[in-house]
Write a structure and sequence with these properties.
Length: 150
């Protein structure tokens, strides 16, 4: 199994590639992580991606973001009811990210285990959707920061 430092580099490289639109390179890094990781390591991998998404959301929402220790929380708003259920991999990625952002490790772990049991289509597809979603959030946060002169 690769070292923690090697895994961290692949996580970084996957996110950078996804943010730049290089889907093949992002997929290569995610595949390398997946083939060289056990379930515990993959949980840490997806949690790391989710944390990057959480930080991007916090940057974008600033003081309007849900506050830890309050009854405020991140939620999923579907503009077209049922659309999320039509894509189980995207549904998993969204639910995992929201659980992580809400600081709910039990819900995040349950989502992770559900994807593992659901099989490769949901698990691999879900991780790919998570990376793509986080890259989109990070790009949006970066554009907003640049627009504000930061």
């Amino acid at each position: 199994m690769m070292t923690t430092a090697e895994a961290a580099q692949h996580i970084h490289d996957a996110l950078v590639a996804a943010m730049s639109g290089d889907i093949d390179q992002a997929a290569h890094h995610v595949a390398t992580l997946g083939t060289d990781s056990d379930a515990s390591r993959m949980y840490n991998v997806v949690t790391t991606f989710a944390e990057a998404g959480h930080r991007a959301l916090l940057h974008m929402y600033g003081d309007k973001a849900p506050k830890p220790g309050t009854d405020e929380m991140w939620a999923i708003l579907q503009l077209k009811p049922g659309a999320l259920e039509a894509n189980s991999a995207q549904a998993w990625a969204t639910r995992f990210l929201v659980a992580h952002c809400n600081g709910d490790p039990d819900a995040a772990k349950a989502q992770f285990e559900t994807a593992l049991v659901a099989g490769p289509e949901v698990f691999v597809g879900g991780v790919c959707c998570l990376v793509a979603d986080v890259a989109g959030l990070a790009n949006t946060a970066l554009r907003e920061s640049e627009a504000q002169g930061g």
